[in-house]
Amino acid sequence: MIAVSQLFQLLFPSHITLLTSTCRELGLIDKGGNLHLNCTAINLFSYLFDCVNYSYEFGELSNSQKQAIITLIEKKGKDKRLIKNWRPISLINVDAKIISKLLAKRLEKVLPNLIHPNQNAFVKGRSIFDAIRTIDDIVDYTKRNSWSGILISIDFEKKPLIH
Which DSSP symbol is given to 29? Predict the structure, then answer.
């Protein structure tokens, strides 16, 4: 095994901190600080680093990174004749997925401080079930205080298409 700092000092002397944190986020560095890569992985990592630099320098992803193929996948055990039993999936460029994952991992550390506490879903440490609990608490509170009110529940699956 090779120490991360030794490998990156040789290959990318001016980018050691970024590369080390990226490899750690991808799970390529063990607790002892050793990097687990072979020559092919090093070449791929070098290519990925060039892609990230391109995106940073030009302020956008390359053309191939912005392309996707959208296809449908059936839900197992469901009637294939009904469109609701299919789900879309986007097949995108692998380096774009890795860049996206790296950004997401870095953002998840600060998002809870930026997003209002009422936003319950899709933030690490929060759950959609918190919203359900809040609704239940409000209903209970209004009953105890004999307040009248209206609760509206919207099912987005049944939302009409707007043309």
Answer: B
Other Cβ atoms less than 10 A from the Cβ of 37: the count is: 17
C-alpha to C-alpha distance for 3 and 10, rounded to whole angstroms:
11
User: Residue 34: which of 14, 11, 8 has the closest Cα?
Assistant: 8
Structure tokens at 145: 């205080």
Half-sphere exposure for 109 (CA within 13 Å, toward CB): 5
Please give the model's pTM, rounded to 2 decimal places.
0.49
Return phi, psi of residue 6, to 5°.
-65, -45
Q: Tell me 121's DSSP state.
A: S
21-74, pLDDT tens digit by residue? 666 666 677 777 776 665 666 677 777 777 777 787 888 888 888 889 999 999
Residue 107 CB neighbour total at 10 angstroms: 11
Q: Could you tell me how many residues make up the chain?
A: 163
Residue 33's closest CA among 10, 8, 13?
Answer: 8
Which are the contacts of 11, defined by CB distance < 8 A and separation ≥ 6? 42, 46
Environment class of residue 35 by beta-carbon count within 10 Å: exposed (0-12), middle (13-18) or buried (19+)? buried
